[in-house]
What does this fold into?
Amino acid sequence: MKIYIDGKYYDKNKAKISIFDHGLLYGDGVFEGIRAYNGRVFRLREHLKRLLYSARAITLSFPMSMEKMENEVLKILKLNKLSDAYIRLIITRGVGDLGLDPRKCPRPSVIIIADKITLYPPEIYTKGMELITVSTKRNIPEALNPCIKSLNYLNNIMAKIESNRAGVPEAIMLNKDGYVAECTGENIFIVSNNTLVTPPCWAGALDGITRGVVMELARKKLKIEAVERNFTPYNIHTADEVFLTGSAAEVVPVNKVDSRLIGNGSPGPITRELIKEFRSLTHCDGVPIYS
Ligand code: PXG
It folds into this structure.
C-alpha cells in the first residue's frame, strides 16, 4: 500500500512524519474521512470544501489548490488499485519547535491514506446499536468549535472511553446546556411524528456530509420533513426511531439508549428505508476514479 506525504509516495511501513510536527505535538491540524464505493468517491468536493473551511478556521494555509487535492486523492486510489475504500486526508501545521507558536512551522504537511475499510459488524445494521448518554460534554463553540474537524479529538475520545467502560459501542454527547450534540464520530437523528430531527450545528454537531445526504433523501425520496432542532435525552428516549450517520458508519439504526428500548427494539421503517436509499445512492454517485 502506498501513502502520499508531501508530494511523495511511501510504502506503509516507510510512511513517517517528524516527531516535531505540530500535528503530533499539539493536535494542530485538520482532517477528513471520505469513502469510495464501486469506483467512485462519494461527495469528494463536499469533503474537500469542509477541509478547506476547517483549515481556514484555524488559519492554516491550504497548501495546494482544491483541484490538485482532488487529483491526488484519485491518484492514490489508482496507485493502490482500490474501488471501495476509506480515504483519510490530513493537513498538519507541519514541523516546528517545542513551542506551540505556529509561526515556527513554515510549511504545512499533507498526508493521504487510502485503505480498505473496517466496518461495524453487519448485525449492527439489521438489529441496531446500543448507545448511552455520557457525562463528557461536547466542546463549547466559543472554545474549539465542533464544526472544525481538527486533529484534536480528545473531547470525543473521553466520551468514547466512557461508553467503552459501560460496554456500549457509542456515546451520546450533550452540549453544556444539556441539549444533544452528536456521538463521538457520527451525527444523531431521531424520528418523531414522521419527521427527522437532528441537532443544529451551533448546538455542537459537525455539519456531517452523511447527515446532509440523509436529510436530502428524506425530503426527496421518502417525502418526509427533515429539520434541525434542539432536543434532549427525553426526546431520544421517547422517539419512534433513532439512527446515526457518518462517512465511516453510513446509516446505523439504534435499538437501545440508556437501557431503554427504542420503538419495539428493532430498526424502524424510516431508518430501514433510508439505509436502502443511501446504499443505492453511494453505489452509483460520486467522482469516478478510473476514467
Ligand atoms: N461527528 C463527528 C464528531 C465526526 O467526527 C461525523 C459527525 C460524521 O460526519 P460525516 O461528514 O462523515 O458524515 C464525524 C465524522 C472513524 C471516524 O474512524 C469517523 C469520523 C471521523 C473520524 C473517524 O470512525 N466521522
